[in-house]
Design brief:
The protein is α+β, with helices and mostly antiparallel strands and 251 residues long. The chain has nine helices and eight strands. The strands form two sheets. Strands 1-4-8-2 form a four-stranded antiparallel sheet. Strands 3, 5, 6 and 7 form a four-stranded antiparallel sheet that branches. It is globular and about 60 Å long. The relative contact order is 0.16.
Length: 251
C-alpha cells in the first residue's frame, strides 16, 4: 500500500515539509561519502529556509499545549491505559521544555555562521559549490567521514528540539484518524465532512498494484479524490474504473 497525505492547513503543510527534510537528514547523516554529506548540508539549508517563513516555534509550543490539555482530560477514564497516558504526557512535557528553552528562532545560530552562509549563498547557483568557487568547502569534503559527520551533527543539533516537537505532534495527529474502507466509483470519490470538527490531515492508502495516483483536494466542507493513471503518452489521465481505498481523517 502507498500512503498519501493531504494537509488541510498551512501549518500542517509546513510540519509535513519539515518532517520530510528531517527524515532525509536522518538517511544521509550515517553515510560516509562526501557527496552524501554535501546533500545533507543542502537539506539543512532547506530546513532553515522553511523555518524562516513562519513563527514555527510559537506554533509548535501552542500545539503541544493543546495536546497536553486534550490528553489530560482523559485522566481517570477506565477505557484509557493510565500508564500509556502518563508516558505520553511526560513526553509532551519533555519536548515542550526542550523547545521552550531555546532562545530565538530554531537554527538562528546557523544563520550567523559565516562559513555555512557562504556555502548556502553559492548552493542556489547550479554547480556553485565547485572547488574553484569554495576551496574551503572542497577541503572540508576531503576530511574523514567521522569529522564531517561530527560537524553536521553539531549543526543539526540546534534544530533537534523543533524536529522532535513536530514528529510528536504529527504522531498524535495521525493516531487520531480511524481508517475506513471506501470505494472510488469511476475513478472519483467525494465525501462531505462532519461539521463541528476541524480536520487537519487526510491520509489515503492505495494498493500500489493498481498503479493509480490520487489528486486530492479539500476544505472544511468536503474532500474529493480523483484517481489518475500515468499513460504511455507521459500524461496523467483519469482512471475510470472502480477502486478500493483506505481513508483516514485526522483532527
Amino acid at each position: 500500500m502507498i500512503l498519501y497525505e493531504y494537509p488541510f492547513h498551512e501549518r500542517i503543510r509546513t510540519y509535513l515539509r519539515l518532517e520530510h527534510l528531517f527524515t532525509r537528514l536522518g538517511q544521509l547523516l550515517p553515510r560516509t561519502e562526501a557527496v552524501d554529506h554535501h546533500f545533507a548540508l543542502i537539506t539543512l539549508f532547506e530546513v532553515l529556509d522553511v523555518c524562516s517563513r513562519a513563527d514555527l516555534k510559537s506554533d509548535a509550543l501552542k500545539d503541544l499545549e493543546k495536546q497536553k490539555a486534550h490528553l489530560t482530560a482523559y485522566r481517570g477514564n477506565p477505557a484509557i491505559s493510565e500508564a500509556s497516558l502518563e508516558a505520553m504526557l511526560d513526553r509532551l512535557e519533555q519536548v515542550f521544555a526542550q523547545l521552550n528553552q531555546q532562545l530565538g528562532k530554531p537554527g538562528h545560530e546557523l544563520a550567523e555562521h559565516e562559513w555555512l552562509m557562504a556555502i548556502r549563498s553559492r548552493a542556489v547557483i547550479p554547480a556553485g559549490t565547485c572547488s574553484f568557487d569554495l576551496p574551503a568547502y572542497h577541503a572540508w569534503q576531503h576530511r574523514p567521514a567521522e569529522a564531517r559527520r561530527h560537524d553536521l551533527m553539531h549543526w543539526v543539533g540546534s534544530l533537534a528540539p523543533l524536529g522532535q516537537a513536530i514528529a510528536l505532534l504529527l504522531q498524535l495527529l495521525r493516531d487520531s484518524g480511524k481508517p475506513q474502507k471506501i470505494m472510488a466509483t469511476a475513478g472519483q470519490f467525494q465525501q462531505g465532512l462532519p461539521q463541528g470538527r476541524a480536520f487537519q490531515l487526510l491520509r489515503l492508502r492505495i494498493d500500489e498494484s493498481l498503479q493509480l495516483i490520487p489528486e486530492i483536494s479539500g476544505n472544511r466542507m468536503v474532500v474529493s479524490v480523483r484517481l489518475m493513471r500515468h499513460e504511455a503518452d507521459g500524461k496523467l489521465h483519469l482512471a475510470r474504473e472502480d477502486a478500493p481505498l483506505e481513508l483516514a481523517l485526522c483532527a
